[in-house]
Known about the structure:
By secondary structure, the protein is of the alpha+beta class. Helix content is about 65%, strand content about 10%. It has 23 helices and 11 strands. The strands form 3 sheets. Strands 6, 7, 8, 9 and 10 form a 5-stranded antiparallel beta sheet that branches. Strands 2-3-1-4 form a 4-stranded antiparallel beta sheet. Strands 5-11 form a two-stranded parallel sheet. It is elongated. Its main location: membrane. Keywords: Cell membrane, Membrane, Transmembrane, Transmembrane helix. It is found in: Cell membrane. It comes from Micromonospora purpureochromogenes.
Amino acid sequence: MFERLGRFVVRRAWWVIAGWVLAAVAIVVTTPSLSDITSADQGSFLPRSYESVQAIELAKKAFPQQATATATIVIKRADGQPLTPADEARVGQLAQALKAKNISHTSGYLTGPQAVAPDKSVQVVNVGLDAVTPDDPALLDAVRDLRAAIGPELAGSGLTAGVAGDVASFVDNEDTFNKAFAVVGIATIILIIGLILIIFRSPIAALLPVLVIGVVMAVTSGLVAAAGKAFDLNVSQDLQTVLLIVLFGIGTDYILFLLFRYRERLRAGDDKRTAMMVSVERVGEVITSAAGAVIVAFLVLLLASLGFFGSLGPALAIAVAVMLVTSLTLIPAVVSLLGRYVFWPSKAWQRAPKATMARRLGTAIGRRPALVAAASGALLVALAAGSLAYKADYDFSSGFPQDTESAKAATDLQRGFAAGALAPTEVYLTTDNGSPLTEQQVTDFAAAAAGAPGVGRAQPPERSNDPSVARVNLLLDENPVSNEAITLVRDDLRDALHAAAPPGTRAVVGGPTAIFADINSANNRDLSVILPVAAGLIALILALLLRSLVAPIYLVIAVLLNFAATLGATVYLFQGLQDKPGITFQLPIILYLFVVAIGTDYNILMIARLREEAREGNEPHQAAAIGVEHAGPTVAAAGLILAGTFGVLMLAPISFLQQMGFAVAIGIVLSAFVMSMFFVPALTALIGHKAWWPGHGDERPVRGRHARPEPASVTKA
């Protein structure tokens, strides 16, 4: 099949390129924009079966006037002394003056005696922020306008103020985010061009992936948007960034797979057309299997209960499918026309390197496979042990710079009030049959809620326009997004509040802490489902590729061990050495996307080359040596580019970006340089012919019409 495909693409190269150009133009012109299917509505982030989602729906009906978000103005004396009655009166005047300015998208301006800290250190003014969606840019402008108005109103009063809250924090850190992602984008291009330039010493080879992936990105965006319209998919606004990273990751991998094999065939004496035909024949099955494994891994995300991942999976699967078609058609067509000029002006492609590092590594692995397998396996196990101490961290604010206005105001607020002042736990009391709540029921429940576990303070109950619903906001003693608070809500507080509901009523617990508690449960559930299913399906693809049942088993075990080792290494660094309270809760899924899914590519490339060398008649140890010699540089180059791209994130002054950058970078390094380069070849050499049981994957097949035996100088280590 791949022999025929290679022959067709090479002989009809101009037709293939023209077809691609016409198809790309048609897709870009006729499909909708990706922004048409993106959404910031997190209502579907969790299934409706979760209590926090039920609380959100109840709030929308019972308190329709509730603001989309909140900005909290925190006022204190400039000299650090307690607020005086005159100061409190001045804060009340501030609230009225700000309200009179009619700042767009703001409402409420609530303050009073209940807004004064018990120790008189601060007083707050709660401002509602109103917009269609929580990330409406108008909210950012509202906070900026609010800050601009506060200064003149407090001039000469001896009081200072800062605006805290999620929107204010985003305003303060917007430039940091933008700079971080700009650096990543630039670093990606520089790394890809720079490293390929070093490897092939050719500007043409270096620019080829960037130009091709740019076209593929445009085509993919159109196809994903069209699929989103057809199947009513709403995806996060992060999709564009994730698509770009995935396409550069796998696209560079697949292009390198082809270029390395093409150069090898040219060195073996093939003309430019035959070299590409043989390259597609030999590498086409590897690329297809690798892409199939990644597509399956992404589609398994459809099993996720978290809505974002369920819609992300199909979008990424489409991206990989487009890159697969590109790698088997457009890239071979372009390179077959360029021929040796793809490596211009370098002449290094004409001669096989002697005594290379890859050859020395291959020889060492072939001679001492037991030692190599034990050492590399022990390293992965030792790192994996760290994953047992993993704690999820939901506190994004602690990872931002702490010298901003919002961070300082939040610190002042938490010093004066209970720790949960910025993110109250919302408890809704409602009757079972829709009858009105009595005042006694509301009062009794509010008193019981105030004494519930972990509650530092209960705010006065609020009655809804719907007489069957009332709300009590609870300020927790713990940081509301800490693991302690999330565990408290999930394990103790909810049960206590449910039990405190008077007969004939029920309590529904919501708010940020409850949402994170449910996300924690959903995340654990998703990982327990996604990882085993993906492992099983990837094993099936490997079994079909290798016609074996033994090799897929230890390959999948290696991938899962690498996942655990990556998570463990991140825990050692951030929870251990840096004493962080935990690792960002999104990290396990991120590692699944970029380490398990994409990292599988390197395993497939290496095991396919080991099988190929076994088919050439080499015994297992020799096949491992030659396989590492020839596939090792490809794996190393691809892994280094992808790891370097993510590693740049460690320069960002934001904790969770640093964690993500380190984790994915170290995961790719372990995938490429430990698992694929050492562990898998050594283990395959040890197992020997039994690795291909029950098939005959290591037996010499009938050769394709264009295939040639490797010269002795190339095939001998």
